[in-house]
Amino acid sequence: MFRTSLKNAKGKIAPSTALLAMSLLLAACGGTQNNSAAGTGTASPDSAGNSAAAELKPYEVKLLWEGPAQKDVLAVEAKINEYLQPKINATVKISTLDWGQYDEKMPLLIASREPMDIVFTAQWNGYANNVSKGAFLPLNDTGAATGDLLEQYGKDISSSLDSAFLKGSSVGGKIYGIPTNKEMAAQGGVLYRSDIAEELGLTEALNNVKTVADLEPILQAVKENKGAGFTPLFMSKSSNFNTHYMAQLDFLGDDTIDGAVRKDGENTTVISRFEDPDYMAQIELTRKFFEEGLINKDAATTSVGDPLSSGNVFMAIASLKPGWDKEYAISVGMEGKIKQLELGPATVSTSETAGAMLAVSSTSKDPARAMMVINLLHSDKYLINLINFGIEGEHYTKVSDNVITSGPKAADYTPGVAWELGNQFLNYTFESEDPNKWEQTKVFNESAHQSPALGFIFNVEPVKSQAAILINISKQYAAALETGAIDPAKAQEWYDKEKKNGLGDILAEKQKQLDEFLASKP
Question: Is 304 strand, coil or helix?
């Protein structure tokens, strides 16, 4: 979806810093316990909701996701814990890293070995690289001290999640993250203010748009009519024309490491991003838009989460799915004012199957209990809707069994991170959404073109030193180039630095591993 761009109610409520500091620095209960089920006195239930809570020692599970802090998080936590404690004798402490902060702060938390239990991760925010650093525990390793956590405590996950998701989260045959059960495909496009489009007479022109280049005259019209201080097209370093769902590049499990195949084709030759004509063309087009004043000037550095709700932005780039415009509009209180426009094919790659996962941190004091909570997020309808939508009668009101509308305190708890957590097919739908949304999502998944490398995740271990250097080089150029802030000629400078610092080794290793993966497929 939007990730650090418009993924939901990003940036609506600001008090995240104190909450994060408190929840991450508090020592875990049972701090002297070792990382095994036996060591923590954990029972072995058939599934996370069926164990006798009396057999389990009390434990606080620290859950960290990417998104804005919420005013009523403590009230929701209390309801969660009231429900969870009798089931598995655990409580949950929710912490957040706001959009734009995650990529910078998560490496610091990992390096400092902060006590955490359940951590949001994704292919696009360094999953494979963090696995190589030992940040996450293997979840299906019978030889590990923790045992096969997925088999012991995640049976509801295995029975409900498409096997393609779990294959897509595997690194070297081991699963380090449990994917969200959601749309498996991605389709690049934009969300735009439909009310402004109607005001300016642009609706018909928008309906005829086929490519990103077709947006130019529309954005020019918005600029001319709305004047200074109004942004025709909002971009950020993680939401632009070269974001993976727009550029159709499958970076084989980790967007931060160069080397990709086209996911909308069948060719399995691994190339650098700079060898892809579309990638280079989008850099040129983005620069043109930037120089014409159609893109926000701070695109390379901004971490604004939901710019459309600011009132001074017309359009923003997004990863789309059926009904995403309505879902997003609800999350930012703009129902009836947002529409989506698809600008490319729907495709499925490991980027999508591993595009939102919950991992168990290697600093967890009770990995078994963490897995029990993840299992419940995939199987317990009451729990997943409570964590996603808050308290019934306060943050939402039920219209029918599975349909809700915003409650009187909706503004105090609208995290908009349902795509990060558990099983979306258990979620309520809002009254303004299509009641067949989840059936449409299944059709969307089934009809999408599959990347020729679907299911493969690059194991960075053999070239982790080179990868670390290239990731740092990328930080010097990627954001500025991909948002049009600097001359496209700088791409050659970036490419040359990569080639001098191990790009060839990485491409060769990616190709070798991909060829082996493809050869092993039945």
Answer: coil
Distance CA 342, CA 184 (A): 16
d(CA 360, CA 438): 28
Q: Give the type of residue at 388.
A: N
Dihedral of CA atoms 15, 93, 418, 151 in degrees, nearest 10, equals 160
Handedness of CA 62, 63, 69, 73 (dihedral sign): negative
* pTM for this prediction: 0.70
| Sign of the four-CA dihedral 179, 182, 184, 186 | negative
As a whole number of angstroms, the distance between CA 240 and CA 234 comes to 9
Residue whose structure tokens are 């620095």: 25
Q: Contact, 189 vs 321, CB < 8 A?
A: no
Whole-number CA gyration radius for the chain: 22
Q: Is the distance from CB of 302 to CB of 295 less than 8 angstroms?
A: no
Q: Are 458 and 255 in contact (CB under 8 A)?
A: no
Number of residues in the chain: 522
- pLDDT tens-digit readout, 231-260: 999 999 888 999 878 989 999 877 889 999
Q: What angle do CA 365, 367, 368 make, to 5 degrees?
A: 125
Give the tens place of pLDDT for each residue, 289-313. 999 999 999 999 987 667 888 889 9
Adjacent-strand bridge partners of 404: 398, 430
φ/ψ of residue 13, rounded to 5: -125, 135
Query: How many CA within 13 A on the CB side of residue 295?
Result: 28
8 Å CB contact between 70 and 8: no
What whole-number distance in Å separates Cα of residue 89 and Cα of residue 83? 10
Instruction: Classify each residue of 107-133 as buried b or exposed e, where b means 16 or more C-beta atoms within 10 Å of its C-beta.
Output: eebbeeebbbbbbbbbbbbbbbbbbbe
